[in-house]
Design brief:
By secondary structure, the chain is of the alpha/beta class. The chain has helices spanning about 1-20, 45-60, 75-85, 100-105, 115, 140-150, 165-180, 190-200, 210-215, 265-280, 280-290, 300-320; strands spanning about 35-40, 65-70, 90-95, 120-135, 155-160, 185, 205-210, 220-225, 250-260, 295. Strands 1, 2, 3, 4, 5, 6, 7, 8, 9 and 10 form a ten-stranded mixed β-sheet that branches. Strand 1 (about 35-40), helix 2 (about 45-60) and strand 2 form a beta-alpha-beta unit.
């Protein structure tokens, strides 16, 4: 992990030096035409939703359309690769997130190096997951679940959006820290997994709170705990997994990145505007209503956060032996 940290810091410093000297565009004139904001997941998902929140804000502030382009595939790698290959002029941006950090370990033969090829622009929010079960499943709490799983090894079906998805890695951390054995049912995306959970085809799922919360409110799913170390404002009466499994803290994050060598002036302008949006009461309320927490930061802070996040989950993924298909 120390080697990874040194490598990341070396690459980040080199990218910053290159972008600072680039004459491609200036902050005064940027943007000069519509901006592509690539969401590397399908429309109507969490990443797409936040892309539209950010895109609308930036369109209003900067006077040019920020057009959302959904480029799904390979756990976000298809969209990321498209942005890596784009001109570093600030007119193509990427919705970044936890998937990029997980993919560093999950994939062996990527055409790009995320830490080298995508310059951090800003962070948007921290995401909260929630451990939910179908109402027909007998367990009522995290201790119940652990006890049931230990008494019935390999007999609990866990829904997942696929190898390397948030649902998968959150469950892997839970298994690693509790010693339970559960059976994965991997789907091609979180939506069909959630559909089958609501239908009772699988028993539990570590789902994103924004996509699960309406099912919880409707009584179609029973929440056992949120996946963070502390409780969520969106579900204040639901305990955290950390209350029962000391040290458990699983969250996602969403941010914005740009191709390597994008001028520092443009990155800083975007960072300032995005942070202004996160401070706006209406934007902040929309994010918190979805169960997320705003996460303003500088580009340098995004870099530091990303490497720490990558290190943490590399240990979990390597321990599980998971590799992308």
């Amino acid at each position: 992990m120390k080697l990874l940290r040194r490598r990341f810091l070396r690459l980040a410093a080199g990218a910053a030096a290159l972008s600072a000297g680039s004459p491609v565009a200036t902050a005064q004139s940027y943007p000069t035409r519509p901006v592509r904001l690539v969401a590397p997941f399908p429309a109507a998902g969490v990443v797409d939703l936040f892309a539209r929140v950010v895109g609308q804000w930036l369109s209003e502030r900067l006077g040019q359309p920020f057009l959302i382009e959904n480029r799904a595939g390979a756990g976000g790698n298809v969209g990321t690769d498209a942005v890596v290959k784009a001109a570093p002029d600030g007119h193509t941006l990427l919705m970044t997130g936890a998937n990029n950090a997980w993919n560093v370990t999950l994939y062996d033969n990527l055409n790009f190096d995320f830490l080298r090829d995508i310059a951090p622009v800003a962070s948007i929010c921290h995401g909260v997951g929630v451990l939910v079960v179908h109402p027909s499943f007998s367990v009522k709490s995290v201790p119940d679940l652990i006890a049931y799983a230990k008494a019935n090894p390999g007999k609990i079906n866990v829904g997942s959006g696929g190898i390397g998805s948030g649902q998968h890695v959150y469950a892997e951390l839970f298994k690693m820290m509790t010693g339970v054995d559960m059976l994965y049912v991997h789907y091609r995306g979180g939506a069909p997994a959630l559909t089958d959970l609501v239908a009772g085809q699988v028993q539990i799922m570590f789902e994103s709170l924004p996509t699960a919360i309406e099912h919880i409110r409707a009584g179609k799913l029973r929440p056992l705990a949120v996946t963070t170390a502390t409780r969520s404002e969106a579900l204040p009466d639901v305990p955290s997994v950390g209350e029962f499994v000391q040290g458990y803290d699983a969250r996602t994050w969403i941010g914005v990145g740009a191709p390597r060598n994008t001028p520092a002036e443009i990155i800083n302008k975007l960072n300032n505007e995005i942070n202004a949006g996160l401070a706006d009461p209406k934007v902040k309320a929309r994010i918190t209503d979805l169960g997320y927490t705003v996460f303003p930061s500088s580009p340098a802070e995004v870099s530091s956060f990303t490497i720490a996040f990558t290190e943490k989950w590399a240990k979990v993924i390597k321990s599980s032996g998971a590799k992308a298909e």
